[in-house]
């Protein structure tokens, strides 16, 4: 059982969020997180959250359940916050879908690793922002194992959309409900979304995101990912409004 001392130390960093579109969430943070970004150490505030899946939202119950929850079997999402995110006039937000191959291994088959770190740079340069790292978004929501099968199909000539469809999935099955609920807790004012896809901005707005605009993020284009990026433009609605992206 969690002791009173531990409960007192942790409870003020735990915030239960009522999610009208789903289960309640427990948001934990902020936690000071110094991050090596290029040649400097940047100080972010880090939050993570847990879907309570209908279980008790009492903080003591949440803590006591941890040892039985087996959370290592699936990943939780989190968010890096920079600057006075709650009160600043302008703020950038990146809803970044986890990419095991691109973000961790540095795969050149996509541009995800570049987008992750460049978004962090953009947020720091802006002076305020948040990078959401969404753990259940691998392969546009199909999961890492399914993504590996989709990669095999891509090696055999399928494009990224065709591969997902061939496995029985829609092109994009990601949900942003939890992230939007967390964002509403951290900031009430509108944000600018970092994305190449205006359809994504539209979908997020329709699901409650208060966003005034989007800025595109193209880069790290190579022969390894050229077809992948072209497919996102031609089939997923991404707009190549950067001169470098126009060369795809």
List keywords for this structure.
about 250 residues, alpha/beta, Rossmann fold, 8-stranded mixed sheet, globular
Describe this entry's structure for a reader.
The chain is built from 10 helices and 8 strands. With 248 residues, it is of the alpha/beta class. Helix 6 packs across helix 7 (160-166). The protein starts with a helix and ends in a 12-residue tail after the last helix. Helix content is 37%, strand content 22%. Strand 7, helix 9 and strand 8 form a beta-alpha-beta unit. The protein has helices at 4-11, 59-69, 100-104, 112-126, 138-141, 144-155, 160-166, 177-186, 198-206, 226-236, and strands at 14-17, 25-37, 40-51, 78-82, 92-97, 129-134, 191-194, 211-215. The chain has a domain at 29-48 and 73-137 and 174-247: Rossmann fold (3-Layer(aba) Sandwich), CATH 3.40.50. The model has no long low-confidence stretch (mean pLDDT 87). An 8-stranded mixed sheet has the order 1-2-3-4-6-5-7-8, with helices on both faces.
């Amino acid at each position: 059982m969690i002791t009173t001392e531990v409960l007192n130390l942790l409870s003020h960093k735990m915030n239960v969020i009522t999610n009208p579109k789903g289960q309640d969430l427990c948001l934990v943070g902020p936690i000071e997180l110094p991050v090596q970004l290029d040649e400097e150490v940047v100080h972010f505030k880090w939050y993570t959250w847990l879907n309570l899946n209908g279980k008790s939202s009492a903080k003591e119950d949440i803590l006591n359940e941890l040892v039985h929850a087996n959370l290592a079997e699936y990943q939780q999402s989190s968010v890096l916050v920079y600057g006075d995110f709650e009160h600043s006039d302008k703020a950038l937000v990146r809803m970044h879908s986890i990419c095991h191959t691109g973000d961790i291994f540095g795969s050149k088959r996509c541009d995800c690793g570049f987008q992750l770190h460049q978004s962090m740079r953009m947020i720091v340069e802006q002076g305020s922002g948040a990078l959401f790292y969404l753990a259940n978004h691998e392969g546009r929501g199909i999961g890492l194992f399914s993504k590996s099968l989709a990669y095999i199909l891509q090696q055999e000539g399928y494009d990224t959309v065709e591969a997902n469809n061939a496995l029985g999935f829609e092109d994009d099955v990601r949900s942003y409900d939890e992230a939007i609920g967390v964002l509403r807790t951290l900031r009430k004012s509108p944000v600018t979304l970092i994305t190449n896809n205006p359809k994504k901005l539209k979908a997020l707005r329709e699901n409650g995101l208060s966003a005034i605009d989007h800025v595109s993020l193209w880069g790290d284009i190579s022969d390894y990912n050229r077809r992948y990026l072209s497919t996102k433009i031609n089939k997923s609605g991404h707009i190549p409004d950067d001169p470098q992206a126009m060369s795809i």
